[in-house]
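Forwarding these from the shared drive since the link keeps breaking.
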Amino acid sequence: QVQLVESGGGLVQAGGSLRLSCAASVPSFSAYGMGWFRQAAGKEREFVGAISRGGLNKDYADSVKGRFTISRDNGKKTVYLQMNSLQPEDTAVYSCAAAQTSYGVIPGRSPNYDYWGQGTQVTVSS
C-alpha cells in the first residue's frame, strides 16, 4: 500500500511563492511516475503537472507553465511542486498522485492514477 502525504500549503499573497512536498511511504518510489492535481471549491479536479520516474521528463498544464516546477528526490521518496508568481486563481486543494509507469514515461493528465494523497490547501490572496 502506498501512502502519500502532502505538506507546504498555506496562505500567500498574489505574486508570492510556495513549495509543496509529497512524501511517499513505499519501498520502490522510483517505480512510480508522479502527478500533481488541484481542485478549487465548486470545480472539477484539474491536472497541474507530472513527472516521470527518473525525473527527466515533465508535463505541465498551460495555466501553470513557466510558473510551476515539478521535481523529485527518489532517495527521499519525495516529489515537489515549486509554485511561483501565484495568483488568486491558483487557490485550490493540491493533491499528489502516483502511477506505475514505464521508465521515462510521463503519467497522463487524466486522474487515472493508482494512489492519491489527502491534499493540502493553497490560498492566494489578492
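-- next protein --
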Amino acid sequence: QMQLVESGGGLVQAGGSLRLSCVASGGTFSSYTMGWFRQAPGKEREFVAAISWTGGGSTYYADSVKGRFTISRDNAKNTVYLQMNSLKPEDTAVYYCAAPGAPYSRIIHTTTSYNYWGQGTQVTVSS
C-alpha cells in the first residue's frame, strides 16, 4: 500500500513559478510510474504529467502544460516533482500526485488507471 504526500502549493501571480513535491512511502518507488493530476472547482480531475519508472524516465504531458511544466523524480528520495513555470490563472486547481496499482506500468494518463492518490495541494494563480 503506497502513501503519497504532496507539498509546495500556494498563491502565485500569473507568470510566476512553483515546484510541487510528492513523497512516497510503502512501496518500491523506483518501480512505479508516477503521475500528476489537477482538479479545478466544478471540473473533473484531469491529467497533467507522468514519468515512467524506467531508467530514462520518459515523460508525458497534457497539451495545456507542455513547455511550461516539467515532471521529474529522485528515486533516492522517493520523491516526484512538478516544476510549474509561466503559470496562468487557468492553472488554479488542487494538484494530486498518483501511482498506479502495480509497478512497472507504462505511462498512463487516465485517472481510473491510478490507484494511489495523495491528499492534494492547492495552487492558486492570480491575474
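The CA atoms of residues 98 and 117 lie 4 Å apart. The longest strand covers residues 18-25.

- D.
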